[in-house]
Amino acid sequence: MHLLPTNEEVIAMLRETGALRDGHFEYPNGMHANEYLQVALAFRYFQYAKMLSVGLSRRLRSDSEIRAMIKELSIVCATTSGLPIAFGVCEALRAHQVYWTEQDPETSSMRFRQFVEPAKGEKVLLIDDILRSGRRLKELKSLVESSGAEIVGLAVAVYQPNPTVEDLGSLPLFYLAKMDAMYYKDSSSCELCRNGVPVQKVWN
Fold it and tell me: Does residue 2 lie within any of the structural domains?
């Protein structure tokens, strides 16, 4: 294993842990794909959680601007999938602290936990385990910006953009591995459906 895991090493680890699955999958938005990735499954294993967290922290340290602000840098994530990598990267990077959001039971939108919110002007890094549609990171970005904090970048373990990925602006994006799944808009355009491959619905 390299000090900074290669794209191939990350993908091999995801397959080994069952986080990456081949087949025919239907997402809640109706989109179909030939593979499904749930990075959280890899975080069940200490050695792989450490590999992803430390690897991403090294990717961040290689950026001179991020490296210069590490001691004052806070990390923000969305629960629940973002928490393991947020705390892992914070520890490996020796960043300042972690903030996290939760779902408001009345509006279903993101909110910070009570007494856990970045201050105006605070430098923060948004972290998640995967960037696929970007919807969660976009909502997180808007929430952090409304607090007056300064977002300095986005970091994810895996970048697997689908055709409808959200525009997250010009913020620098850091990731360990990039993957390109085969996506289909719906069942009518899905080659897997036409070939009779059994479909499995996934939650996200």
Answer: no
Give the SS3 label for residue 18: coil
For the chain, what percent of residues have pLDDT higher than 70?
99
Q: CA-CA distance, 76 to 175, in Å (whole number)?
A: 16
In the chain, the percentage of residues whose pLDDT exceeds 90 is 87
Render pLDDT for 134-162 as a digit per residue (tens, 0 to 9): 999 999 999 999 999 999 999 999 999 98
Domain that holds residue 49: 7-201
Mark 121-132 as b/e (b = at least 16 C-beta within 10 Å): ebbbbbbbbbbb
Per the domain annotation, does 150 fall within a domain? yes
CA distances from 204 to 82, 124, 192 (A): 14, 26, 19
Residue with tokens 């393991």: 84
Helix axes 82-93, 46-61, angle to 10 degrees: 60
- The amino acid that residue 102 corresponds to is E
Q: What is the number of structural domains in the chain?
A: 1
Q: What is the CATH number of the domain that holds 93?
A: 3.40.50.2020
- φ/ψ of 186, rounded to 5, equals -160, -175
In-domain check, residue 117: yes
Q: What is the pLDDT of residue 203?
A: 84
